[in-house]
Amino acid sequence: MDITIHASFLPHDDPDASLAFYRDLLGFDVRDDIGYNGLRWITVGPAGRPGASLVLQPPAADPGITAAERATIAQMMAKGTYAGILLATDDLDGLFERARAGGAEVVQEPVEQPFGVRDCAFRDPAGNMVRVQQR
């Protein structure tokens, strides 16, 4: 059996800022941008890799989520503790500098971790943790 990850989901609270971050700053391709009832779902992915996507979605869009749950999600997003993603690149320093120059909130500059991985971290416009490892 061959199973792959087709898409992962991250919340956004400003679709245009998230689109600019993933498309313009990280260089992802925009695969879809769908609006419905005043909300937007934006699918992006690494250029040249159509099999892997990231869906930027409105938080708590599920009608089964209560007002209290929506408030909790909004609080967690504001703190940067709600969601995250781990990316990999051949040019960690270049990507980090591009993210910093583009205004991304730096969480950790590139560093060699004790477990043998060199990585860095920053937040996207919605507060999601974006960790990047050197390939």
Automatic annotation (TrEMBL):
<protein>
    <submittedName>
        <fullName>VOC family protein</fullName>
    </submittedName>
</protein>
<dbReference type="InterPro" id="IPR004360">
    <property type="entry name" value="Glyas_Fos-R_dOase_dom"/>
</dbReference>
<dbReference type="Pfam" id="PF00903">
    <property type="entry name" value="Glyoxalase"/>
</dbReference>
<dbReference type="InterPro" id="IPR037523">
    <property type="entry name" value="VOC_core"/>
</dbReference>
<feature type="domain" description="VOC">
    <location>
        <begin position="4"/>
        <end position="135"/>
    </location>
</feature>
<dbReference type="InterPro" id="IPR029068">
    <property type="entry name" value="Glyas_Bleomycin-R_OHBP_Dase"/>
</dbReference>
